[in-house]
Design a protein that fits this description.
This protein is α+β, with helices and mostly antiparallel strands and about 160 residues long. About 50% of the residues lie in helices and about 20% in strands. The chain has a domain of about 80 residues: Alpha-Beta Plaits (2-Layer Sandwich), CATH 3.30.70.3370. It has five helices and four strands. Strand 3 and strand 4 form a beta hairpin.
């Protein structure tokens, strides 16, 4: 392992490395973390590997990695790097988990007899509409347009 660049970024409290690594196969991010931590004597929990670049047929890989002073700084930077879509997906997962927890808590409060009576039997279960929300909107728009066309035809006649 050969260190190509070693820059200290005081603002973000990290050490920015560009390392060339010789390996027979493409190394994984975890393998690179372990090698860097062994080489520099830093904790592998504070290392963030950004890229592992390799050329076709070459046994030398260029690795870009950041070594943070502590794990808190690493987590903060990972959070900043997330896209709006990723943040939205995480919020939805958290909301679903909260809903499930509240449902479990409310079912624990009720006696077992009542919860059995409230459950509909298999034959009484309502049929769920499995149409995606986007398709429903499109169907509603189509019906509205058809109604408008019918009204226009009536006015013309």
């Amino acid at each position: 392992m050969k260190i190509e660049k070693d820059i200290r970024n005081e603002l973000l409290k990290r050490q920015e490395l560009v390392v060339s690594l010789e390996s027979e196969k493409n190394p994984s991010f975890e393998e690179v973390k372990k090698k860097i931590s062994e080489e520099l004597g830093k904790s592998d929990e504070n290392i963030d590997v950004l890229r592992i670049k390799g050329g076709f047929g070459r046994a030398i890989f260029v690795v870009e990695a950041y070594i943070y002073d502590d794990e808190k700084d690493l987590k903060k930077m990972i959070e900043l790097r997330k896209t709006k879509k990723q943040k939205k997906a995480e919020k939805e997962v958290e909301e679903k988990a909260k809903e499930e927890n509240s449902v479990e808590e409310s079912s624990e409060e009720k006696p077992a007899e009542q919860s059995v009576e409230e459950k509909p039997s298999e034959s009484e279960e309502p049929v769920k509409d499995e149409t995606p929300v986007e398709d429903k909107k499109e169907e509603e728009e189509k019906t509205v347009k058809e109604e408008q066309q019918k009204q226009e035809e009536i006015k013309e006649n």
